[in-house]
Amino acid sequence: MDAATNSEASGLRPALRHKFIALVGNEYVRAATAADAVGGVQPKLVIEPGTDRELVNVLLLSNYAGLAVIPRGGGTKLGWGNSPASADLILSTARMTEIIEHAWADLTVSVQAGCTIQRLQETLSQHGQRLALDPLWPEKATVGGVLSTNDSGALRLRFGALRDLIIGVTIALADGTLASSGGKVVKNVAGYDLPKLVTGALGTLGVITRAVFRLHPLPLNSRSFSVSTVNAEETQKLVLAVQDSKLAHAFLQSHFADDTPPVSDILFEGTDAGLTAQEAQLRNLSAPANISQASTSTWTAREDLWAFSDPAGTAIAKISILPANLARTMELVAHSANTHQLRWKALIYATGLGGLRLQGTAGSLRGALRTLRGELQGQHGSLVVLHRPGKMPAFDAWGMAGDALALMKAVKQQLDPKNTLNPGRFVGGI
Amino acid sequence: METRILDQFRAIVGDRGLISSPEELHTYECDGLTNIRVMPRAVVLPNSTEHVQGIVRICHRERIPFVARGSGTGLSGGALPVENGIVISLARMNRILEVDFPNARVVVEPGVINLDVSGRVSPRDYFYAPDPSSQSICSIGGNVAENSGGAHCLKYGFTTTHVLGLEVVLSDGSLVHFGGKTLDTPGYDLAGVFVGSEGTLGIATKIILRLVKRPECIRTLLAAFPSTNEAGAAVSDIIAAGMLPAAIEMMDNLAIQAAEAAVHANYPSCGGLLLVELDGPLAEVEALMTHVNEICRSNGASEIRLAQSEGERALVWKGRKAAFAAMGRISPNYIVQDGVIPRTALPQVMSEIERLSQEAGLRVANVFHAGDGNLHPLVLYDRRIPGQEKAAEALSNSILELCIAAGGSITGEHGVGEDKKKMMSKMFAEPDLVTMQRVRCAFDPLQLSNPTKIFPTPRLCGEKPGEYVPHAIESAGIAERY
Hints:
Chain A is of the alpha+beta class. In chain A, 32% of the residues lie in helices and 24% in strands. Chain A has an 8-stranded antiparallel sheet, sandwiched between helices.
């Protein structure tokens, strides 16, 4: 029986609540409030287990009882994905924050899912190291949360995505299985690569309880520059020229908006000698007049995209395109925004990933997103809606999952057959 | 194999695409792991995705297990045929279908040789980064199955880092696509699970790869140390200094002797040889190379050489890449291992290997990817001496147990295959392995695609995991089983 129907039948009887209390202690089971709602669905309880074992027991009991479970880390991206088909309890990793082992000489760290990215980075920096990732809101976002949402920023160009940084994971499955895969060495091909499977799975396959990452040294020095261009066509030329050059840049991102010409930011890291040489090469690639020291907004560009005051009139989408389709895509965005009378702003990385903010009425947003998604899908790309106005809850966040959807459903069926975890929030109704 | 079924295969691939005579089948009875051999019932050589689908559909209907094979260079028996099964050789699907420089992507068929990808894109100064030692003969399809690494994965990552998308024939013959030309396609990262699954989840028929721009400069340094301990200390200092070299390789005295005998790489004679390669912008590399030089010197390097030309650099690498095969020069037989340890455990694990080697009375040569802790101990023995093969296998397994005990892995790049599946339960707990097999059941419920590999205990899909044991919370009366 699936979670949606069974939880109605059983409700959250006081007896059941007492069982949860017996598992984790009275102070860690509380009634959910309106602030705990997920995609407009109100859960009943918030439970904060303190250990892997407690978390497994909560999950197992929920699974038996047919409850729908929403795993939660810092809660910064809880609105991503579709609204859950049902939500009985929030399973919070707020108490599971330990940095288990920073094996600095081996450039690895093992950490519990509830640890925030900022605290992790602070610890790593004591040995001159970092998790080479710049996710959104690191002061609140947790290891488990960024993994589940596969959040990445500008550094991905050089250091790869979370899938390339995670080397081991422990997950709790709905049936109480606690399974580890990978390990704590960087190079390891023993068994299936489940760390990659759960990265970006939005908590629909299991709850990540701990992860092991490979680390990178903090840069010796860095320099960043901004390069202005007159239009998207010129931006694309610049981006492709830099990508095709011998520069070893750590990131390259371009800003576009309805009211300002494009600007691209580039970051170099390394020795002073290397930085000076690369700066000179960059100046050969673009007219010197267009190059300036990057402003501080370079570092906050992604969060700036999310800094909007009107949630009911704003949509944010993650887009993925071929790098050589940059200009064409930006023209499409401008055209579509114009047609639907929307304000817009975009931040696109040289990887072809980016963020797009559209502002206007829910009706026009729906129209523009649908058009853009169709266009991008037609050129091998995708558009995933991360934030949408409350008035358009039914707008699918994900778009086409392709011909592997049946297989994805089979994987879900194998690992969470009762559909206990985050029901309905993922691709294709998973 | 019944004529009826052979005829069905023949109808798809033609006479020349089917091998069924015992003499010809011998070629396919093992891969690079030559001490285990199984004769396949037939070998089928498809020429297209449609062929693969057709062959697999017959296997599905007739319940015939199949093993996909690339160039057969694998070292763990991944392409070893299974009893009563067929081999599907992808050797004829060797076309590079698309080269897209602006987006730095190529689309290839699985039979394309690894080095040919770099060869094709080198005129525009790009390369395909994963470089297993067998790169001049191994296929991309095999690399995908094994998640092959190579000397440069310290900096550039593994095959999985460079595979953006896959076209896959599942074990029922259906065709699916994972990932794509763009990043983060919506849905589960099935490409991530498929790469390194050793042929157990289906057959890749098209692969989208990422290309990398060749760096401005590549510098290779050789440093001779009294022993691997000093060489290892230098590696730690290089990493601690915040550098990420393109490669750091280490060889011990026995390995150096073998490489010298085989390819005359002109290595200095010493107890521990370190090969450090840096790449990137010229000014950056030169600044860092000075630092590497100082680190080697301060750790007791007696001789330091910087390869002065591309020819010298190639020779240095030739010695390293030939190291396995070179063992033939100093021993009639050898077993290659592929354990991984946290780099810091190197001195302790090395002295343990030395102790085990002496106890067993067998020589062990050591070749490492020292930057990432991937050891390739080569256990030397003589099959003609009674008992020595068994002793070599036992020693080899003890070395892997050392790796596990040090917090490492039984395989860094060669795969589990047939060879190391018994070691899996020493590295993973039962729930870990059961979870992996549940994933497998989603892909291949009848377990036709390279069954019997990776997992120590086969499980039927849908089988209840073991005898039912009440969970702690049930025993405590907190939950009842519904």
